[in-house]
Amino acid sequence: MKSIILMAAVVLLPAMACLSQINNAITETVKVYGNCGMCEDAIEKASNKKKISTTNWSKDSKMAVITYDSKKTTLDAVLKNIALAGYDNQNFLAPDEAYNKLPECCRYDREKKQVAIMIQSVNDTTAPVQNQASHQHGGMNKPAQETNQLKAVFDSYFSLKDALVKTDGSTASLKAKDLQTAINSVKMDKLSMDVHTAWMRVLNDLKEDAEHINGTKDIAHQRDHFMSLSKNIYELIKIAKPAETVYYQFCPMANNGKGANWLSRESGIKNPYYGSQMLACGKTVETISQQQ
Amino acid sequence: MVFYYARLGSINEIFEMVIQKPFCKKLLPLAALLALTISDLPAQPVPGNPGKVVRYDLYVKDTMVNFTGKEKRAIAVNGQIPMPTLTFTEGDTAEIYVHNLLKEETSLHWHGLFLPNKEDGVPNLTQMPIKPGTTHLYRFPVIQHGTHWYHSHSGLQEQIGMYGNFVMLKRREDRTFRKGIDDLPSVPVVLSEWTDYKPENVHRMLHNATDWFALKKNAVQSYAEAAKAGHFKTKLKNEWKRMLAMDVSDVYYDKILMNGKSESVIKEVDGKTLKGGDKLRLRISNGGASSYFWLRYAGGKITVVANDGNDVEPAEVDRLIIAVSETYDIVVTVPADSTAYELLATTEDRTNAGSLYIGNGIRQLISPMPRLKYFEGMKMMNDMMKMNGELDDMGMNMSLNQMDMNVVMYPEITGEEKKKGSHKNEIDMSNDPNRYNANALADIVTLNYAMLKSPEKTTLPDAPVKVLKFELTGNMNRYVWSMDNRVVSEADKILVKKGENLRLIIYNGSMMRHPMHLHGHDFRVLNGHGEYAPLKNIIDIMPMETDTLEFNANVEGDWFFHCHILYHMMSGMGRVFSYQNQQPNPLIPNPRLAQRKLFADDREMHFMFQNDVATNGNDGEMMVQNTRWSIGSEWRLGYNNHHGYETETHIGRYLGKMQWLMPFVGFDWRYRKMGIDEHEKNLFGQTNTKDSRAVISVGINYTLPMLVRFQSEIFTDGIVRLQLMREDIPVTKRLRFAFMVNTDKEYMAGLNYIFTRNFSVRTHYDSDMGFGVGLTFTY
Predict the structure, then answer these.
(1) Is the pLDDT assigned to residue B611 strictly greater than 90?
(2) Bridge pairing between strands B535-536 and B501-508
């Protein structure tokens, strides 16, 4: 019962001086998620509207006291604005985009957000493949096991790449953190000999690049490290063989005209070194798949 | 085998009983409500039982609605907006009784349906209008399936409530029945918009080039705003090329409605509560009068499974734009329990949106679409516009919505607006072939027509092919919309032979996009899928695009082909396809009268009036104009004989596609008391000594670059006058600068501050009357 209205009682406060601005005032207290003083400013700014609504949020109780003109707006409308600013609350979940844009200290735990149930889409063909994969996992198929060991590493690499394509430094930093976690949780003894060797060769560099990308939001700095990161992931994925086809791509303009590579799961070019400035610059130089 | 929908029949008997008793008049609304609840029941699909007659009774009635806090007039059918969803199964016979309880004429058009021409519902073309107080029966066999819709085709009634979904279910045993799609629970959704202004007034304002809607949208794009954004030169070039501020839509709306509400929730379907993992088919039609909508879903990808009522191979996208009057069937998934996911419909200009939440529990929002980068759009238009007003696609051969010039304005595709002076790191993209391709530029997938593929072959029967080429033409400044620079009343019907194949090649040479709709037929859109080209009945054509459509002429009659933006259609943007040697339509007893009434739509004169009461005098103007003609009068009335009184009246006709030139004849009258020996001398040395002067003139008006109006006029007394004038230079969002100089050595300069749609404060200096401050009323 942690996130219900503590006080849903409707109180009219015409006498209070601070509320004299708002007519037909109704005050309600509702849960709004957030962490710090910065959140407080943002939440209150999103929901204060001259003569229409005013909010007072406490970072200790995570409760917002909202007073609004019941003839001009609704509690729902005020809470929607708070959610659009990035803060989950009793009635609304913030758009992911808005949450991801919050400053780091404001990234509260999204306890209200449900984990999506895996579903098959209308023309989805991946489900049988997944079944197959889990079969392999139970069996003695070694390459599959290795892929599973490294899958999280590759997955977070691709998420990081997507963030760079969007020129989104803060998401990139977050994804690099995921990459660090994935790197650290690889059980090396489960890897086959050649993959193990490849892994040891690139491990330190991978760690270092991930750490640098995580440690900054400066997109240029992140992209510098992404070049060597991509090269090392490529060395690794060539040996480990990915579960699905991966494309090794090259943009001749990156790295001040020296060119740079990256890996993608799609054959189409979406350049992580320039983002929307020159998204389509580049070409596929190698296709890596299990069948090779 | 034919039987009546029994329960419905009996209720109608009750209804008839009720209205038979004169003292029961007050019960009428109640009875209408009863009829509504029954009519709203979907007809149950009965397998193996073709030929069922399904009857609906529709009561069209004036109503008052309150969407914004103000009571406004609207039209409800069976007491509701949108009109009830009508559901049939392929093989049924539809019987729809339309009871007109309005004080005006009406009609209903069954959009996208194959039916006999006399059931098509276009007043004065396929039937005479349904008179107030009468009932009209539409009866036709249902010979197709899919999501369609219906709406009034009379005047501007569609804007104020007369739209509804029309669903024809596929039979279970149909060869094309798709398991996992056609058996999903489905919900009809009608999109629409609401404005508190009367639609007649909206139409009139558009024809008078109002900038009030731009002001409401914060899209005036004035010089001050341009300078602030570092785009002063862009604005200057734009006006040099004689363009008014560009926008992606014409009208500002107060509310966006989905099934008549700006926010609503779907918690259950067919009595079953939605939970995580459930899939839902939404049958969406855009019943908006002039708005395109972006559809985006907070719960993940959208799977498009049908378009304009025709199945397409499932296509997964992040978003799609639904053109005015199109329909899309989409499948969405509720990803998790205890959450309702937002389906957001945002107008193309992004000023407003409506939400539909799907699921139960806390509502997961999707981020609103960021504001358009208008000045980037203006820059793009400057590059595309030639000095003569024609568009230049710079060799890009655009079609099928694949290249969207507007991406330059979309922050989510081309990045946030750049701050002034931060152009250093920019890379020149002007030669990139993909610079307008949204799907190549970003990692979100936007639907375009090239992605639509029919699951079945759609090839036409072998027949002679007739090729017709059209150019969509228009002129934003005067709000004239046409095809090949002719409006409906200026063009002949296009004669068609039954059995032949028609191929239409349509180029949009105007500055707005147009959703072109063909009545009574589906056409193939040649989009690279060969035999599997998708079938549609509306095609949205963006500026500079060329699209090719083809269809078999297989049902005789007079079929309307028109732009479905209501205000464009009413301005005459359309044609009529007429089959040769067809049987006369029994519902059109007097074809000549019908044609005259049909043509009256685009011949309508639009009125404007403006008057300024100032400290130094009173001046104003009044105008009525239509597609080609303009009759205008100006007056300047001083407060004494020395200042004088004068009026000028001009009757002119606009020439050419861009309508920059208008020859006119005029009549001037003036009285002014001048002192002895006082006389006026113009730049050419011609003098005028008379106190009172009444003369006739001929002359021309020509719009110069910078939208300055040049007027050259010669009067019957031999005097010549040349004049330069512009009244609406947008200095800031609300401030307009005006000036005038002429060879009579008269001049004027003034500033106008717009307060409301009708009132502004004006200060000006006039060579005759001196300095003045006044209040201007504009209608």
Answers:
(1) yes
(2) unpaired
Distance separating alpha carbons of residues B328 and B718, to the nearest angstrom:
65
Contact A276 B338 (CB under 8 A): no
Q: Do B303 and A278 touch (CB under 8 A)?
A: no
Cα dihedral sign, B231-B234-B240-B244: negative
**Chain A contacts of B443, Cβ < 8 Å?**
162, 165-166, 270
Is B416 an interface residue toward A (CB < 8 Å)?
no
Cβ contact B735:B753 at 8 Å: yes
Structure tokens at B679: 């006389």
B331, B365, B415 ranked by CB distance to A93: nearest: B365
Q: Is the pLDDT of residue A11 over 80?
A: no
Q: Between chains, do B413 and A274 touch, taking CB under 8 Å as contact?
A: no
The pTM assigned to this predicted structure is 0.79
Q: Per mean pLDDT, which range of A58-72, A75-89, B386-400, B752-766 is the poorest?
A: B386-400
In this complex, the residue of B181, B368, B440 whose CB is nearest that of residue A122 is B181
> Residue A193's pLDDT is what?
80
> What pLDDT shows up at residue B684?
83
Q: Tell me which of B264, B319, B355, B362 to substitute to probe the interface with A (most A C-beta atoms closer than 10 Å).
A: B362
CB contact under 8 A, B368 and A277: no
**φ and ψ of B695, to 5 deg:** -135, 160
Instruction: Select the residue from A93, A256, A266 to test the B interface by mutation, using most B Cβ atoms within 10 A.
Output: A93
Q: Quick check: B233 pLDDT over 80?
A: yes
Helix (H, G, I), strand (E, B) or coil at B229: coil
Q: Do A95 and B367 touch (CB under 8 A)?
A: yes
Q: What residues does B751 pair with on adjacent strands?
A: B737, B763
The three-state (H, E, C) secondary structure of chain A, written as one string:
CCCCCCEEEEECCCCCHHHCCCCCEEEEEEEECCCCHHHHHHHHHHHCECCCEEEEEECCCCEEEEEEECCCCCHHHHHHHHHHCCCCECCEECCHHHHHCCCHHHCCCCCCCCCCCCCCCCCCCHHHHHHHHHHHHHCCCHHHHHHHHHHHHHHHHHHHHHHHHCCCHHHHHHHHHHHHHHHHCCCHHHCCHHHHHHHHHHHHHHHHHHHHHHCCCCHHHHHHHHHHHHHHHHHHHHHHCCCCCEEEEEECCCCCCCCEEEEECCCCCCCCCCHHHHCCCCEEEEEECCCC
Cβ contact A35:A105 at 8 Å: yes
**Min distance A274 CA to chain B CA atoms (Å):** 9
The kind and range of the H/E element at B468 are: strand B465-475
To the nearest whole number, what is the mean pLDDT of chain B? 88
Q: Give me the pLDDT at residue A218, please.
A: 87
Mean pLDDT of B44-63: 78
Which residues does chain B have within 8 Å of residue A3's beta carbon, measured at their own beta carbons? none
Q: Which of A87, A100, A274, A279 to mutate to test the interface with B (most CBs of B within 10 A)?
A: A279
Q: Which of B263, B365, B415 sits opposite A276 (nearest CB)?
A: B415
B193, B213 in Cβ contact below 8 A?
no
Show the beta-strand stretches assigned E in B716-769. Answer: 720-730, 735-742, 747-754, 759-766
